[in-house]
Design a protein that fits this description.
The chain is mostly helical and about 80 residues long. About 75% of the residues lie in helices and about 0% in strands. It has 3 helices and no strands. The longest helix is centred in the middle third of the chain and has 23 residues.
């Protein structure tokens, strides 16, 4: 490959990278990473509640209740 062509390609890549900086926020001003984290926590909470409904052993129920409390705390901190 010709040396000049390679440097032209690198220059084009750098120029296009500087020209198209993606926005980190959604159009409504929210952070997509925070939305994704909240959704994961909500889904985990639903799963824990379902497990709690089926749990029979006291130790297992206690563990699930602690996990549920931790998820609730983290969700409340997110807002």
């Amino acid at each position: 490959m010709a040396r000049g062509f390679e440097s032209k390609s690198v220059a084009d890549q750098q120029e296009s990278a500087h020209g198209a900086i993606p926005s980190r926020l959604e159009p409504d001003g929210s952070d997509p990473a925070a939305k994704a984290k909240r959704r994961r926590l909500e889904l985990s909470r639903v799963d824990i509640v379902h497990q709690l409904e089926r749990a029979r052993a006291d130790a297992h129920r206690q563990m699930l209740e602690q996990a549920l409390a931790a998820l609730d705390k983290e969700l409340s901190e997110l807002g």
